[in-house]
Amino acid sequence: MSDNKYLDEYSEDSFWTKTRNFAQKAGYDVLEKALRLYYSATDDDTPKWAKTTMFAALGYFISPIDAIPDLTPVVGFSDDLGVLVAAAAAVVMHVKAEHGEKATEKLDSWFNKQSTSTEKDSEK
Fold it and tell me: Dihedral angle at the C-alpha atoms of 43, 48, 53, 58, nearest 10 degrees?
């Protein structure tokens, strides 16, 4: 156990359960930040200090007990977004373009979005 209760909240299973179950409610922007951090944190190139920051932020996102309960209409995920953005700012040099691309791919599949090139290909 660590000194950071939110770091202790993190588990891969809990992360994927939360993102899948709350995808529509949390919204694209919140999940995009969470997934970018997840893919960055699971990259072998990311240093341990940055992974700790990322996993702590993801632990906060997963935690059912935070500043604003996630079930609160409209603002329920605003605190989660703030924590994810702050963590991303602290570790920005370790978030690669490929992490963003993976996050976008995952979200597009969850939100049934297609990229422009896919739409053009399907029109042919």
Answer: 40
Residue of 70, 71, 44, 42 whose CA lies nearest to 55: 42
Q: In this predicted model, what pLDDT tens digit does every residue of 78-104 receive, in sequence order?
A: 788 888 989 999 999 999 999 999 999
62/70 Cα distance (integer angstroms): 10
| Pairwise CA distance, residues 99 & 110, whole Å | 17
The pTM assigned to this predicted structure is: 0.71
**Matching residue, tokens 């990259």:** 43
d(CA 33, CA 124): 34
What's the pLDDT tens digit per position in 36-79?
Answer: 999 999 999 999 999 999 999 999 888 876 655 655 545 567 78
Q: Which residue has the tokens 């995009």?
A: 32
Q: Helices 28-41 and 48-62, interaxial angle, to 10°?
A: 140
Could you give the C-alpha distances from 112 to 83, 88, 109, 118, in angstroms and in order?
27, 26, 5, 12
